[in-house]
């Protein structure tokens, strides 16, 4: 008997009208021969129909297996840790001159993040590329994988202290960032001012200090700006562009900052998936007592809680939140000001 049960050595046993045997029945039961031409024709049609159904069921099972494999792979690729392999950090070649560059690259590559140093359209510029695996299943249920890439919406501009001093003294600090924002269009700026606190510490000390004098060796060749001029320029720029401006002093903190931004960008798909799965839950289903802020009956802890809430807003770094908190020490004070302006 062949795979389709079309053996001429026997015939089918009597069956109910319209009964079509399954593929398993055709295989397990021997088919008896028949001398009737009409019987052979009916048996052949039934076997063919049964075989087609078996093939269809097998195709569906294989399709389901392929779909489950694709879904499993997609979930795996966006898991924390795994997702780092699908991000590349692009450094402008000017970043290679900074003291934190090699340390940053080592930290990123240890986490399986790809890096490259290339000429970019903006000097001292960092952006991120995300790679996404695209899976398709063909008619034979074979999984085919392709890769797409896209540039992430956040970009980082890093200015060293001497460049900041020259731009503020020339009153072009804000305009320079405005022009960059126009070039980058819909990108969100992250501005890092590197070693600015040391600049003011140098001028505050009588002789600049031994270590500071080595770090700021050409400081006397540059114009001097006051801390007030600096703060005014920073606040003006943040208000005008709605960007985040952060002061970082050393290579360790700078490398860690780049790594943290990279990690946050890499984990965005995972967090979006998690939010999608929990957004319809009751609020208290996600209640978590870890890292909470205690507020006693005297109100101690309210300021920390207010800072925490401010940091939840987009582009609100801790320095920005602290600046807001100094002027508006409570949510009600901030709302009063907003209502007044409206």
TrEMBL record:
Gene3D superfamilies: 3.40.50.10130, Crossover junction endonuclease EME1, DNA-binding domain. The keyword Metal-binding applies. It comes from the Eukaryota. GO terms for cellular component: Holliday junction resolvase complex; nucleus. One of its GO terms (molecular function) is metal ion binding. Residues 33-47 have a biased composition (Low complexity). One of its GO terms (biological process) is mitotic intra-S DNA damage checkpoint signaling. It is found in: Nucleus. Keywords: DNA damage, DNA recombination, DNA repair, Endonuclease, Hydrolase, Magnesium, Meiosis, Metal-binding, Nuclease, Nucleus. Residues 28-54 are annotated as: Disordered. Its main location: nucleus. The keyword DNA repair applies. InterPro entries: EME1/EME2_C, Mms4/EME1/EME2. Its cofactor is Mg(2+). This is Uncharacterized protein mms4 isoform X2. It comes from Fopius arisanus.
């Amino acid at each position: 008997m062949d795979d389709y049960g079309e053996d001429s050595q026997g015939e089918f046993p009597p069956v109910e009208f319209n009964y079509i045997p399954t593929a398993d029945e055709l295989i397990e039961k021997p088919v008896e021969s028949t001398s009737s031409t009409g019987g052979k024709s009916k048996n052949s049609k039934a076997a063919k129909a049964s075989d087609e159904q078996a093939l269809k069921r097998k195709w569906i099972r294989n399709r389901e297996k392929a779909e489950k494999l694709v879904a499993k792979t997609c979930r795996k690729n966006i898991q924390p840790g795994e997702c780092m392999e699908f991000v590349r950090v692009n450094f402008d070649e000017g970043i290679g001159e900074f003291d934190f560059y090699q340390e940053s690259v080592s930290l990123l590559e240890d986490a399986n993040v790809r890096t490259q140093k290339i000429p970019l359209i903006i000097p001292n510029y960092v952006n991120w590329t995300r790679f996404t695996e695209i899976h398709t299943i063909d008619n034979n249920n074979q999984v085919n994988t392709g890769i797409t890439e896209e540039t992430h919406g956040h970009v980082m501009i890093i200015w060293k202290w001497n460049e900041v001093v020259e731009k503020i003294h020339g009153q072009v600090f804000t305009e320079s960032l405005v022009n960059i924002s126009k070039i980058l269009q819909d990108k969100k700026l992250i501005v890092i001012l590197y070693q600015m606190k040391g600049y003011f510490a140098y001028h505050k000390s009588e002789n600049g200090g031994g270590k500071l004098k080595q770090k700021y060796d050409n400081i006397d060749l540059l114009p001097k700006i006051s801390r007030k001029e600096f703060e005014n320029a920073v606040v003006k720029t943040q208000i005008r562009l709605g960007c985040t401006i952060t002061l970082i002093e050393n290579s360790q903190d700078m490398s860690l900052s780049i790594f943290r931004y990279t990690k946050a960008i890499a984990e965005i798909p995972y967090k979006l998936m998690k939010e999608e799965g929990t957004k319809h839950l009751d609020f208290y289903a996600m209640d978590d007592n870890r890292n909470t802020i205690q507020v006693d009956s005297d109100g101690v802890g309210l300021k920390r809680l207010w800072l925490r809430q401010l940091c939840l807003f987009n582009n609100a770094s801790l320095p920005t939140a602290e600046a807001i908190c100094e002027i508006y020490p409570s949510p009600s004070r901030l709302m009063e000001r907003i209502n007044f302006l409206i």
